[in-house]
Amino acid sequence: MKKIIKQFKKKNYKYVYEYLAMNKYEYTIDNFEKDFAMISSLNKFIYLIYLISNENTFRNVILICDFLEYTDTFFFDIYSVIGFFIRQYLNSNPKDLKMKEWVISRYSENPDSPFTQDEIMSWRHDTQ
Q: How many domains does the chain have?
């Protein structure tokens, strides 16, 4: 793991991505925070963007959202960024009911929600 940490610190995201893919790394917020605790939050965030550019999946989008919401956030307005990643995902995967259900459960009653009531209602309609 020392070599991967070194490459991560050097911002060699391609190497990190390929190494983790080859080793079937399980991307969860707990694993990611524990395994890469020595990496700066900014560096981890940039890597997660790289990850999504290669694998724009439900799990990876949830990972970056959880990272922004529950870890050492390094900027103020996280919710607009969370909204951006979720909207990008839903633009590519408009029929993904799992994401819509996740958004509804997480943000329908959240005053910090990056989504409008019209978006929430539309997604709620889609999931029924």
A: 1
